[in-house]
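STRUCTURE:
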């Protein structure tokens, strides 16, 4: 059963969808965080629904400033707020009669995987963490999805963010930039990761009307100093596609983790394949179910 719910994070109303399996309660529960620019109806909702079928209470939600949640400017990506959203989601689950408050885990997809590392490292209520295509969004901006980006690119982004702040101070409307190329040909020129993002977010494959296609420039300098790679000491599962150019970020985080940990490669999968392609999602869900069944009891 899926129910629309709301909770508060940093003074903002967060819109969520709670999935409750049939049967006896209370049960172990999972917070499911969506990728950057995503919404709860996309990858997060898919995983939440699939894991509810496996017996977990699950909560997918829109991050603050995005989707149906409150916050201005729209589309803002603020790492500190994103971590707060995860913790606020945990808080909400502790109030639900269907949930065993001592058995709550987090599943982070893409950027939420990085945010989940920080939330888990700083909130002992999170008993276990799993990530799918997990990335540190700050590293992705600073050095690119494959880690080889020219430093001058990020310097240019910071300069543009500073110019946007100046313009807004003078009365201009929120300054934003496009996240995706306008055409398939342009997306292919950008390489695998750019094309994958364009195909998922800008075509019928994964497009959703509330998924943001632009980012306020002031997101960039908020992201700049964020560091997602924390030495998590609780049970950790990290899942990455063997063909994902971003997988090095999950590997780096995994190497620093101090608690019980397991890394799972999904053969032939790319980063975005794990968002929705059943041949890759199904084995990922099986791994996640087994992990949380053991780590949450």
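SEQUENCE:
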């Amino acid at each position: 059963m899926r129910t629309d719910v709301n909770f508060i994070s940093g003074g903002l109303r967060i819109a969520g969808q709670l999935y409750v399996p049939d049967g006896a309660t209370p049960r172990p529960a999972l917070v499911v965080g969506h990728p950057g620019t995503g919404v709860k109806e996309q990858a997060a909702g898919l995983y939440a629904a699939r894991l509810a079928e496996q017996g977990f209470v699950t909560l997918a939600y829109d991050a603050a400033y995005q989707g149906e949640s409150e916050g201005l400017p729209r589309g803002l990506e603020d790492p500190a707020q994103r971590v707060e959203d995860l913790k606020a989601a945990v808080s909400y689950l502790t109030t639900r009669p269907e949930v065993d408050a001592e058995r709550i885990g987090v599943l982070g997809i893409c950027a939420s995987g990085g945010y989940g590392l920080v939330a888990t490292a700083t909130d002992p209520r999170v008993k276990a963490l799993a990530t799918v295509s997990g990335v540190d969004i700050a590293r992705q901006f600073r050095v690119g999805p494959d880690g080889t980006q020219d430093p001058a690119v990020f310097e240019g982004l910071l300069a543009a963010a500073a110019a946007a702040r100046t313009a807004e101070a003078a009365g201009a409307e929120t300054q934003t930039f496009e996240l995706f190329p306008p055409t398939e040909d342009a997306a292919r020129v950008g390489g695998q990761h750019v094309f994958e993002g364009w195909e998922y977010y800008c075509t019928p494959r994964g497009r959703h009307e509330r998924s943001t296609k632009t980012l306020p420039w002031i997101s960039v300098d908020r992201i700049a100093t964020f560091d997602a790679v924390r030495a998590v000491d609780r049970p950790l599962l990290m899942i990455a596609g063997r063909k994902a150019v971003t997988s090095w970020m999950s590997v780096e985080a995994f190497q620093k983790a101090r608690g019980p940990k397991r890394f799972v490669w999904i053969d032939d999968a790319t980063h975005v394949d794990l968002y929705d392609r059943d041949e890759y999602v199904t084995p990922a869900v099986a791994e996640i179910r087994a992990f949380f069944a053991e780590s949450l009891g």
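REMARK: The chain has one domain: 2-141+227-295.
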